[in-house]
Amino acid sequence: MGRFPLLAVALWSLSLSVCVFPDTASAQLKQNYYANICPNVENIVRGVVNTKFKQTFVTVPATLRLFFHDCFVQGCDASVIIASTGSNTAEKDNPDNLSLAGDGFDTVIKAKAEVDKNPTCRNKVSCADILTMATRDVIALSGGPSYAVELGRLDGLSSTSASVNGKLPQPTFNLNQLTSLFAANGLSQTDMIALSGAHTLGFSHCSKFANRIYNFSRENPVDPTLDKTYAAQLQAMCPKNVDPTIAINMDPTTPKKFDNVYYQNLQQGKGLFTSDEVLFTDSRSKPTVNAWASSSTAFEKAFVQAITKLGRVGVKTGKNGNIRRDCSVFN
Fold first, then answer.
1. Residue 287 assigned as binding residue
2. Which range of residues forms the domain containing residue 132?
3. DSSP 185
């Protein structure tokens, strides 16, 4: 959901030696976790997400990418939402997170406030779980599958810019780099290819792929795996020395719909990043791309499995976390 660069926005890098997260943490997650604590929590969150979605579509890729960036750094604990202070530069201000759209943060903070208006629910629902629910909701709102989410996470107790370094996928990654990074988080190569499909939504800044359309190599100024017409379109939208705020849709075909067109684009040389197109050009991942390009049902099933597994990464329990009163500030 990083390479999710602005969702890039799309959804991702790893220097993590090995992230071993305790099985006991993910074991506490379950569907309907809040049934006896805050019975209406999913409807409350969904209502806020719906309102945000009507205000701006950016809510969709921004929230999805926020979830990915959160889970891949210190586990799914909402540490990415913490604001920096004079004494601490938090995760959100790491260079790899600066392109995260504000609408993702805003969605979670507003949903938390709405949940806490209910006396029964006040200070009983974690920001990490609210982000998880909101992510499921934006996927459904953009035409993707709806699925039951596992809940029961606590919010993390630390957030530092340094903790982000080497943890998120980069747009220049090859298949080996992508696979090893995801494996360090307990995710398979198939999970990685499925989660890359989130690039069917959102957008990226020109700087993230300029190396593919200008000065790729001495022999080929343009990356030869790019469709020539698509490359020309990208050059027109991203001239050299372009305004750094210019953003390009990750999916040039159906940019506002969660679908399997991402994989069809890869077949046509229209993957925006090297880390996208490599999924088709590498013979090890190509069969999966072809399978999902021809079957939206198969893709959606794999995506739900992968994002559910992603939601189990680094879950905080007991003394390792708490429930924040304000998602952007430690208690």
1. no
2. 23-168+311-320
3. T
Q: How confident is the model at residue 20 (pLDDT cuts 50, 70, 90)?
A: very low
Catalytic site positions: 69
Q: Is 91 annotated as a binding residue?
A: yes
* CA-to-CA dists, residue 170 to 89, 93, 162, 273, 294, angstroms: 22, 17, 16, 9, 27
Domain count of the fold of the chain: 2
- 50 and 111 Cβ atoms separated by less than 8 Å: no
The answer to whether 42 touches 151, Cβ cutoff 8 Å, is: no
Residue 241 pLDDT: 84
Q: Are residues 289 and 161 in the same domain?
A: no
Alpha carbons 316 and 306: distance in angstroms, whole number = 20
Note the pLDDT tens digit of each residue in 63-89: 999 999 999 999 999 999 999 999 999
Pair 154, 181 in one domain: no
Cβ atoms 327, 116 nearer than 8 A: no
Whole-model pTM: value is: 0.92
- Judge whether 42 is annotated as a binding position: no
